[in-house]
Amino acid sequence: MTRRTSLLLLSVVATLWAGLLSVGGVWLMLDGPARWPLVAPVGPRVGGAVLFCAGQFLFMYLVADRWFPRAGRSVTWPLELAATLVLIGGLLWIVLTIGPLRLVGA
């Protein structure tokens, strides 16, 4: 398999994966609170933001960095950092909020 073919295959698969994560995150943010009213309305929104940022980070890392390797780090670095911080912050919020509930059995 040539480098160009493998880059194209990786780009297609990673774009579909990132797209599913991003669309799923937006759906969870918009439809989640109405679908699961017993869960605090913040929960689906944070989960949706985490999914959305995971999709964006995945696309930036696996597709954009490979197609545009000479892109300025002054542009790409803040975007990747922002997506990473939202992703880590949202995951920490989920673990710290839902984790104790699972331990108590609520």
Tally of contiguous helical segments = 3
Proportion of residues in helical segments: over 70%
Q: How many strands appear in the DSSP assignment?
A: 0
The pLDDT mean sits at 85
How is the topology of this model organized?
Blueprint: H1 3-35, H2 42-67, H3 73-104
Helix pairs in contact: 1-2, 2-3
Question: Can you give a write-up of this model?
Answer:
By secondary structure, the chain is an all-alpha fold. Helices cover 86% and strands 0% of the residues. It contains 3 helices and no strands. Helix 1 packs antiparallel against helix 2 and helix 2 packs antiparallel against helix 3. The chain is elongated.
List its salient traits.
106 residues, mainly alpha
Outline:
This protein has 106 residues and is mainly alpha-helical. The protein has helices at 3-35, 42-67, 73-104.
